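Course assignment 3, question 2. Fill in each field.
Student: A.L.
Task: Predict the tertiary structure for the chain below.
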Amino acid sequence: MHRIALLTCLLTVSLMNQVSALETVTSKYGDTIEIPCNNGRVVEAEVTFVKWKYDKDGNILVKHRDQNATVSNDVNYKNRVSIKDFSLVITQVAMADQRTFTCMVVVEEDILEYPVQLAIYKVPSQPQITNLTTVMAIGKPTTLAQCRSEGANPAGNITWFKNKTPLVTDGAAIKITTNVDVDEETGLSTTTSTLEYTAVKGDIDAKFTCQVQHIKSANMDSSPLVFTVNYPTERVNLQVVSQGPFKEGDNVTLKCTADGNPPPSSYNFYINGEEKTVDSSTYTLTSVTRENTGEYKCSLVDNEDIVASVPITVEYLDVVLSSTGKIVKKLGESLEMTVDVKASGAPQTSWKKGNAKLNSLPKFDKLTYSDSGVYECIVSMAGLKKTQTFELVVEGSPVIKNLIKERGEGMTKVLKCAAESFPKPTVQWSVNGSNVESASEHGKVTYSLTIVPNGNLTVSCTVSNVLGSDIKSINVSALVEDVTMDKQDQKDEYSDQTILAVGIVVGLMLAVLAIGLAYWLYMKKFRQGSWKTGEKEDGSAEESKKLEENQSQKADV
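Answer field:
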C-alpha cells in the first residue's frame, strides 16, 4: 500500500510540475499506425513500466520491465493493439481512433506522461454525377445535376465549372447548394453539391464539370456535361439548295431553316402566292418554266410574321431563224437572213459557216457558188446555248469559163475545159480521148481531154446540167510546135473577171482589123494608080506578101 501511495504521489507531482507540448501523429484511414512514446526517447534500463491509455480512463495496455505486455479488455482495442519499443501499434485505424493517446512512463524516481494526438485522414471518392437533366431552357432556372463525393475526412470541397471557369452563386442565374453528411458508423463525410442554372443562348455546347478538392489528394474532375439548350425561333432563313442558274425543265429545291431549338418540324411555303404547309424543311419545284420566275417565301406555321424570302429566276432562250433547213437559190439572186432572239438576259450571238467563224449575220446581195454551205447560228446566255442551222445551195446553168490546149507527152495534146455551174455538169467532147475530171469546188470544175491529133481539127467541149448547157470550140493542129492557144480562148483565160472586159478586147481587135483592111485597100488602089502612070513603089510587093501570110496564119489557128 505504501508503494502504491508513493507512486500516486509522484504522478501527481509530475503532472503539476511537467509542461510538455502536445504531439500530433497522422494516419491514413484503415492503415496501421505506430505512435511513439516521447518520440522514441525512452531509455529501457530506467523504465519500471510503461502504460498506454486514451482519453481519461481508457486503459489500453501495460508493460513491465522484462515482462510481456498486458492488453486490457477494452473492446475498441483488445484485438488491434500491440507495443513495440514502448510505441503503441494500432491496426485498421478508424475515425474512432482520432483522439489523444497518452504514454505514461514510470521510472525509479519519477512518473512521466507523453500525450500524442492521432489525426485520421481519408481521400474522398471520385465525383459522381446524379440527378442529371438533359435540357435547359433559356431564361428558366433548371436544376442541372448533383455532384457527390463520399468517404472523406476531412470532408471534400466541390466546385462547379463552366468551360473551365468556376461558377459562384450569384443569387440570380447561378445557385449552388452544398451539403456535408457524416456517416454515423464510419465517421466519414459525404459532400453533395447541387447546381441550379439559368441558361442563355451562349450556353449552346458549353461544357459543365464538377471538381472535388481535398488537402490530401490532387483535384478530381467529373466527366464534362453538355446540355441541350432550348430557345424559341426568332427568325427563319430561306435558301435555294439546287445549284443555279436555272433553265426551263430543271427542278429547284428550297430549304427553310429556323434559329430556334428544337427546330420546327413543319413550315409554310408560299408558291406563286399560294400557301402550302409542308411537314419538312424543303420544298421542290419540278420542271420549272419561265412563269416560275418570282419571289418565294417561307414562315413558321404558328407565326406567319416570322418569314423569309428568296428570288428565283428561270433563264430561257428562244432562237428563231427566218429560214431553216435547205435553201435553194439561183446564181446572182439576193438573200438576207434574220434571227429573232427572246431571252431572260443579254444573249451573245455568233455565226459559222462550216468551221469558219463569220463576223456578222449572213447577207447576200448577189449570190455566188462559193456562198453555198451550211451556216450555223449560235446563241448563248447564262449557261444556255441554242443552235440553229440552214444549208444554202446556189444553183446555175453551166458556163464554160476557159478552153485551152497544152502540150502533152510525145505527140499528145491536153485540152482543158473549165466550167462553172451547180448542180455539177456533165461534159461531152466532140472527139474521143482520155477524159479526166477534176474535183468540183464552189461550182467550179475542170475537164481534161488527152488526144493524139492526126491533122488539123476543131474540138468542141459541151457541159450541161438540168438548168442548161454551154459549148465552146478550139482548133488543134497535129504539129508538135502547136502549143499556142486559140487567141479567143487566151482572151477568155485572162478575162474571167467581167464580160464587159471581153467585149472591149473583141471590139479593139475588130477595129484593128478594119484599119488594116482599109490600109490594104488604100495601098492596093495607090499601087494600081502608079502602074498606070508607070511609077513604082518600093516595098509594096513585100507588104502585100506579108499581109497575105498574116491572113493565112490566122486561118490555121
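Instructor remarks: Residues 499-533 form the longest helix (35 residues). DSSP finds four helices and 44 strands in the chain.
Grade: pending
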